[in-house]
Amino acid sequence: MTSTLPLAARVISEGFLPARSGEGFLPARSGLLQGPAEPVSGPIPPDRVRGMLLGLAIGDALGNTSEGLTAVDRTECHGEIQDYLSNRHAGGRRVGLPSDDSQLAFWTLESLLERGCLDPDDLSARFASRRIFGVGESVSTFLRNRAQGVTPWYRCGAESAGNGALMRIAPVVLLHPMDPSAALWLDTALASIVTHRDACSVASCVAFVDLLARLLRLRSPPRKDWIVTTFLATVRQVCSDQRYRARGGRFADWEGYFPDYLELVLGEAHLLETVPSVLWILERHADDPEEAIVRAVNDTNDNDTIAAIVGAAVGALHGGNALPRRWEMGLLGRTTADDSGRVFRLVESAIRQEWLTE
C-alpha cells in the first residue's frame, strides 16, 4: 500500500485536516498519528466483509423510502417497517434501491479496488461525475466547489459536521488489513475530508473505522458497553478542541466538545444526532443484526443513514450469512439508476482482493 503520510503532512500543514494538537502541525504526540492505543491485527473472514458491505446497502435501502418522517409519523404511515416499502423509482415494487449513503460508500469501494490504495483526488472526481440521489447540503457544497474549479481536492470539502462522510467511510477499513494502525487512521481522515472538512467528522470517521476493524475480527458479540467505550476512546484521542452546539431537541442549550456530548447523551443529518443514535442502537442490539437494523429504520429521524451505519457495524460483527436472506434477495444492488447487481459484484471483488491476505 502506498503511504499517505506525505499527503497528510501537507494537508495538515495547510490547515485542512483537523487534528488534536497543542504543538503545531504533525506533533509527535498527535493522537491521529499515534494510531490506536490497543492495536488490532489479523486476517478478516471474507463473510464478515460481505456482511459489512451488504449491511450498509440494506440499511440504506430499508430506510430511504421513509426518510424525512419522524418515528411517530413513520409508524402511523407504515407501521413497523421490517421489509422494503413500495418504491416509486421501481414502479412501485418492494425492492431495495440506493440513496446517497450507499452510492458514495460503494463508489469509495470501487475507487479502492481500482486504485489499490486510497486516492482522495480520484474519490473526489468520482463523487462529482455521477448523479447522487438525495444529495445533502454539505455534499452539495463540495460539488459546487469542484464545479467552480476549487483545487486541490482537500479545499473542496464543506466545513460541516454533517454525517455525509461517516455514512460512506466503511470500505476504507479494508486498507491495511493485517496492521490497521496509524496508517489506516490517516487514510480514513483523508477520505473523510473529501466532502466534510470538520474535526467532529474526522474523529467520528476514524472512530467508526477503528471500531469496524475490531468488529470484523471479534469471534462473538462484545459486552454491552464495549462498543460505546471503544468508539468514545478513539474520539477523545483524535478530536480537536473545537466547540459545537446542538441544533435542537432536549440538548438545544448545550455547547462544548464533541466527546463530552457523546458522554452526555447516549436523530437528523448531523453528527451530534447521528452518532448517539448509532451508539445507542448498537449498545442494545449489536447481538441481533436484524433487530438492530429494524430499530435504526423505525426509531430514528435520518433513518437511512443511521441504518446504513448500523448495518455496516452488525454486518461486520456477524457476517453476511446472519443477515435476513429476504433483504439480500430484494436488494437490486444498484449504485446508479441502471446498474443492477453492481453492489454484489463490488462485494465479491472486495472479498477476492489480495489485501485481505497480504
Determine the CATH superfamily: ADP-ribosylation/Crystallin J1
Supply the helix-strand structural class.
mainly alpha
Shape descriptor reads globular
The rounded Rg comes to 19 Å
Number of E-type strands: 2
Percent helix range: 40-55%
Binned strand content: under 5%
Classify the oligomer: single chain
CATH class: Mainly Alpha
Element string (H = helix, E = strand): HHHHHHHHHHEEHHHHHH
Low-confidence stretches: 20-29, 267-271
Q: What is the number of helices?
A: 16
Q: Describe the biggest sheet?
A: 2 strands, antiparallel
What's the CATH topology name? Answer: ADP-ribosylglycohydrolase fold
Gross CATH architecture: Orthogonal Bundle
Termini separation: 10 Å
Whole-number mean pLDDT: 88
